[in-house]
Fold this sequence. Notes:
The longest helix is centred in the middle third of the chain and has 23 residues, at 184-206. The protein has two domains: 11-125 and 305-346, FAD/NAD(P)-binding domain; 141-299, FAD/NAD(P)-binding domain, CATH 3.50.50. By secondary structure, the protein is an alpha/beta fold. The chain has ten helices and 22 strands. The strands form seven sheets. Strands 5-2-1-9-21 form a five-stranded parallel β-sheet, covered by helices on one side. The protein has a five-stranded parallel β-sheet with strand order 11-18-12-13-14. The radius of gyration is 23 Å and the shape is elongated. Flavin-adenine dinucleotide is lined by residues 16-21, 48-51, 54, 57-58, 60-61, 92-93, 123-125, 144, 185, 188-189, 300, 306, 341-343, 354-356.
Amino acid sequence: MKGSSPTPLISDIVLVGGGHAHVHILKMVGMPPLKNILEENGIQITLISSTVLTPYSGMLPGLVAGHYTEDEIHLDLRRLCSFSGIRFIHASAAGITYNDGGGGWVKCSDGRPDMRYDALSIDIGSSPHMQNAKSGTDVTVTPVKPISKFSERWKSICHRLQNTQLETYTPERPFTLVVVGGGAGGIELALSAQYALKNILISKASSSSQQQYSADDCIKIILATRGEHLLPSHNEGVRRIFSRIFKERNIEIRYGAEAIGVDYHDPIDLSSSQRKTLRLSPESSQESQPPIYFDECLWCTSAGAASWLSNDTPFATTEDGFLQVNETYELCNHPGVFAAGDCCHVIDNPRPKGKSV
Length: 357
Ligand SMILES: Cc1cc2nc3c(=O)[nH]c(=O)nc-3n(C[C@H](O)[C@H](O)[C@H](O)COP(=O)(O)OP(=O)(O)OC[C@H]3O[C@@H](n4cnc5c(N)ncnc54)[C@H](O)[C@@H]3O)c2cc1C
């Protein structure tokens, strides 16, 4: 029995991932008419999520710029579930089975007993393709997703600049941040990061007598994109506006620069472990493409799928690992299993994922 409901539980709907697409369902389930329909029919809903707090990525550039706090850009999934009477399980799904007659089991990576489902919906988002660039605490490449790790790393980039002597960065040797990816996400991050990093230098300079150069001269932002345009999925007018804004803001754009990794050396100052070079694909790194040196790198390229969707489920995926769904977001050969958001590909009506290229 579920709470005080007189109706016995007769079926389980399991939601995997508390992404943007599922959040609306989590709220609607707590309100009439859905709430009553579920109760009357003995349907229990469970959310399995790898995070308790889910970020709203539209506000991420505002967090980077310093306009919002972490609290302001996150939704508390546990609270939302408690409002709606949904069971919340804090775990990462790592595999799914499917029975012949429908339904199946979800396996989690922490070894807890598998969770049975009658109907299932998957919304686990995507992460940028990292090519051969490693990320982590000891390296200076920061993928934009998962956003929880990104915001930790962003804080440490800000601390790094905050804790460096003011005279370290000069017009000849500016603090250089490269953003990889010329889609909307990359553009928003380049602009907001520049705003935040300059503000750090301005506030350091205001409390120091050593100020020699302006913050404009000591912070350099480069945006590297493999395409010949910014915003390839937008129209010409929008591209023109952002090219102008980047020029006005003195952000360098490197077109035709496909990043495939990072080299850890500083050809200018070999004693320094601080500066890296972006490794470009053989097609990009011709004479016309000078090396891109940087101190920190934000990686915001096109979306990649979680590998377990292809490896540990019986579901059909695209070549690049996204779940194939029909117009009603149901998996093509597995009735009762749905997928939404960045992790799926609507076969007859494909749409761009995330906001990055
Ligand atoms: C800088 C930036 C700005 C953006 N701005 C916008 C914008 O303004 N408008 C817009 O439409 N889009 C924007 N996007 C794109 C947007 O982030 C994605 O399209 C959107 O997040 C996709 O939502 P989703 O529902 O697929 O999953 P997500 O919101 O990515 O969430 C996936 C969730 O699943 C959880 N999860 C992952 N793996 C597992 C697992 N194995 N088990 C359980 N849970 C799991 C994660 O913890 C996460 O909470 C932006 C992206 C970036 C990078």
